[in-house]
Specification:
295 residues; alpha/beta; six-stranded mixed sheet
Length: 295
């Protein structure tokens, strides 16, 4: 039989198939093959009853994240605060680049609009990112924004991520009140250990699946190289064919269509500045060497 892992706890994998949840264990040789089934994995399994099954094969993944530890993600809601913490173009672009790299569709969800004194910033953010092609949802005091967000869940596996204090847990609690996730100061101090060690489960919401644990609040660029980075900015990709050089990095090359678009305000200056910073970080990062096992 085939199914999807909805939850993984203490060596047990809870696989959903045709609306039924089966408790299974991993195949004995998975450890020798360095295979670890993840929540979200599509698997082949066998089971004679609901509690004694075995995962036989993990089918190929299209992507996976470390926090939350989920595979085969379709979209990610990047919860982005306008105030406390203040909005950061740089941090948002880090999330977007990471999601583009993993082929995960981003949805930008702006929170704490009511605390913002200048609404012009919200309008600027919407203009910049919607022109690129990203969906931007602005939180509202009523349920309109929640309803709009839930309408994107159908037939998709969705995860939530964003900066610390942006309101990820609050938003998840609104969507899934039974979660009762710790929020605000609680999650940042007393609840931190509990929050990061709990298992991940996929829950059914609006005809889709939602990971019940918020994702990482800090982003590094350890797995992206300098050749890949230009392809993770959609507005750059749209103009690459007009650059003089096929492998243009959009930095010091002449006749660069991306730099021209920045000068003409067709590409946001903030996005280009973040791109240059990310490129510098990648070029200057130290190589990571794996320790050799001692016999």
């Amino acid at each position: 039989m085939q199914g999807k892992i909805r939850k993984a706890v203490s060596g047990f994998y809870y696989v959903e198939s045709d609306g039924i949840i089966y408790q299974t264990r991993g195949r004995g040789n998975f450890r020798n093959q360095n295979i670890t089934p993840l929540v979200g994995d599509n698997v082949v399994f066998e089971s004679t009853n609901l509690t004694d099954g075995y995962v036989l094969e993990v089918l190929p993944r299209k992507n996976q994240l470390v926090r939350p530890t989920v595979a085969n993600i379709d979209q990610a809601v990047v919860v982005t605060s306008m105030v406390e913490p203040n909005f950061s173009f740089n941090l948002l672009d880090r999330f977007l680049v990471t999601l583009e790299f993993n082929e995960i569709e981003p949805i930008i969800y702006l929170t704490k609009i009511d605390l913002l004194s200048e609404v012009e910033l919200v309008e600027e953010i919407i203009k910049i990112y919607e022109e690129i092609g990203y969906r931007v949802i602005v939180a509202t005091p009523d349920d309109r924004s929640i309803v709009e967000l839930q309408q994107t869940f159908e037939h998709k596996l969705t995860v939530f991520m964003g900066q610390s204090g942006a309101g990820k847990s609050t938003l998840l609690n609104q969507i899934l009140p039974s979660l009762e996730l710790p929020t605000a100061a609680i999650s940042e101090s007393l609840g931190r250990g509990k929050h990061t060690t709990r298992h991940v489960e996929l829950l059914e919401v609006a005809d889709g699946l939602v990971a019940d644990t918020p994702g990482f609040s800090a982003i590094d660029l350890l797995t992206i190289d300098t050749e890949e980075l230009p392809r993770l900015f959609p507005e750059f990709v749209a103009r690459m064919s007009d650059c003089r050089f096929r492998e243009c990095k959009h930095l010091n090359e002449p006749n660069c269509a991306v730099k021209e678009a920045v000068e003409q305000d067709k590409i946001a200056y903030s996005r280009y500045e973040d791109y240059k910073q990310f490129m510098s970080e990648i070029e200057n990062r130290r190589p990571v060497y794996k320790k050799k096992n001692k016999n």
